[in-house]
Amino acid sequence: MIFGLTFPETAVIGLLFAAIQFGAMIYLASLGEMIAERAGVLNLGVEGMMAMGAVGGFVFAIETGSPWLGLLAAAVIGAAVAMVHGLFAVALGANQVVSGLALTIFGVGLANFWGTDYEGVRPEVQFADVDWGPLSDISWIGRILFQQSPLAYSAVLLGFVTWFVLNRTRGGLALRAAGESAATADAAGHSVLGLRLFAVAIGGAFAGIGGAYLSLSISPGWTVGVVAGRGWIAVALVIFGAWKVRRVALGAFLFGLAMALPNRTESFDLPWDPILWSMLPYILTIAVMIAGALVLRNRPPAAPAALGLPFRREER
Amino acid sequence: MDAAPLAVELKGIWKRFPGVVANAGTELTVKRGSIHAVLGENGAGKSTLMNVLAGVYRPEEGDVRLFGERVVFANPADALAAGVGMVHQEFRLVPTFTVAENVVLGAADRVLNMGAVERRVAELAEQFSLDVDPQRQIWQLSMGERQRVEILKALWRDAEILILDEPTAVLTPNEADELGLVIRRMANDGRSVIFISHKLHEVKQYCDEATVLRGGKTVAASMPVADLTPRQLAELMVGEATEAALRPEPRQAGEQLLSVQNLRALNNRNLEALSNISLSVHGGEIVGIAGVAGNGQRELSDVIAGLRESTSGTVTLFGEDITTATPRQRFRAGLSYIPEDRVGVGLAPQLSVTDNAILRSYREHTRGPLIAVDRAKAFCADVVDSFKVRTGSLDQRIAGLSGGNLQRLLVGRELTAKPSVIVASQPTRGLDVQGVKAIQELLIDARNEGLGVLMISEDLDELLAISDRIIVMHEGRIAAEYGGADANRSAIGLAMAGESP
């Protein structure tokens, strides 16, 4: 008993397992958004891209019988939908906020329409948890870390790959330059348009995979509203993580905890209605936004300097 | 190959922008291994011509030849690949990247080993005596160091032709001399350097040949600098004998109007930008603030105008403490401000001439809660007439006005309020000869009427010409102060560089 709360072992293990599960899902979407933002493109369409990834991943998995093909489809669909934003906000220089919001509305609507016939379909195809042999049998840690879906491990791997590419390759250097000072990247001979479109497409693919994580692993199946605002949490998480892979990962776990807790209020004997607890991730999102704004007010911003600014060359 | 083959030939270059012909058949030839000055007033077409050579702009007509061969550049990368590197006035550097990252941005290995890259950048810097640490981030560097990074970028790409667009504008006199040595070393190495400037003594000091542009045309091509006097160069540039500098009649300064005591303030990076500044401005004098960009001048004017909080110290106007007053309260108390960013801080580009004219005083042009448009227009027409602002209509957006007209409108608006003190930050920067003269005359007239003027400028010649006193700022402190008579160029130059004269 701590502070009058009880901590039954199975409930704690279940909570941490789910925190990693939710955290990995949101981490994927956040990584993608972070890549786009590091290239200078704010994409508020994450919610829409996740919804499309969720429904597309489920449909393709059911129709092909393979969750892996479903996952691939989700990534491709996510990238394709992201190209709507790429066309308007990057290629044509439209307002990135407006274009991103439109993408969310469009993506969520189209996903609901596409998913009509699949609502309530039995999720016969889904990802099985990975069995790491003896590792999975370790008490506590085995259940929490080594019996996760393959998608959780993919998320960790993609985090390392993202870090390496951004910080240790020529392409990553150019991509970051496009986000910090597009004119500089252009003058150095890089295609700002190409880099930004690539970053937006990768961001869409990651968001699509995050959506498929929901429909193929966390809560298999398709229901309207399954993404439930988590795309917005992913956007907030990029700010929380100060555009850095490691801090985004940490934030993802914290938000994963906040998302996992509401379903387990009874096991912990928490007061109040579970509905109130389910507001936690969103309250946390708002709190992070406010805290971020307060902290950033007197500090050099961590955000890429050219974030949200369209780039055109011959201007005078 | 000829004995002295031409590195660059630009023939009959035409480039137009909406409302402006920047280059009208401009010609330029540059020899290999020489330092070539391109001279001209603002708007003579120097920068545009160089941007054509560097692949930033495509000319509408004309040929670009490098080492005798005709080339067409689609973008700056093409030009770089062909050996043309340009250091722009606004540096093209990523502030949050290290020196090494910036240098290799255009030509890096697929996978970066930053340790090895830093060593190679350091070696290259060593070879040309460019003193800069590859591991530091750009925002930590002085303007002179940033310029060295730009030069390193060009050398890293093995540029045979290096264009420097007004390179000394941001340098202290000492840094400028160091730059002179660096480019001489490059020329001795067989490279060609194009040195754009409108400062005659620099051209005499650093360059071998000079080409003079006026109104987009070449008025003198490839003249050996050794045979020319600064006076001849000046006449070619301006097209007539230069007038004697404006020099206000000396007069007795009046009572103290504005006073700043022990002022401290932070810059946007939360570093101390003002360290214990004390100064005062009296009626009937122009106090000039000299200094290399980024030594606290901007923060000083912002604090006085109420746009930035001070961390300690006081600002008083007519003996009254206004340290915590709002910008509006200061304005009403008689303080006018001509900010460095005339568009953005001073004027709103998307608003009309009238709206901009009443931005400060709109509360006086109202009927109930509404703006009295007729009165606002009458007021604006008055400002436009008195200060000779050339504009098509009063309802036009100011975005279409030229720099000189924008500044006349801004100065007119601020002076029409009948202030006692004017703080003017870089009021003539970027204006053409007439524009500079008009603004300087307005400030001198204001002084002669008994106003106190605090003028911040990076143009030392301008300050020497019109100031009654000159205060030199260096690293947020007052490095030196001179009365009008005992101010001299070299002493101020040393103080700007942080050395005691």
Q: What is the highest CATH level, the class of the largest domain in chain B?
A: Alpha Beta
> In terms of per-residue confidence, which ranges of chain A show pLDDT below 50 for 5 or more consecutive residues?
none
Strand and helix order of chain A: HHHHHHHHHHHHHH
Low-confidence stretches of chain B: none
| Strands of chain A, total number | 0
Classify the fold: give the CATH topology of chain A: ABC transporter involved in vitamin B12 uptake, BtuC
What is Rg of chain A?
20 Å
Q: Distance N terminus to C terminus of chain A?
A: 68 Å
Whole-number total of structural domains of chain A: 1
Give the proportion of residues in helices of chain B. Answer: 25-40%
Quote the average pLDDT of chain B.
87
> At CATH's second level, what is the architecture of chain A?
Orthogonal Bundle
Derived from helix and strand composition plus strand pairing, the structural class of chain B reads alpha/beta
Q: What percentage of amino acids of chain A are in beta strands? A: under 5%
CA radius of gyration of chain B is 24 Å
Largest interface: A-B, 25 and 32 residues
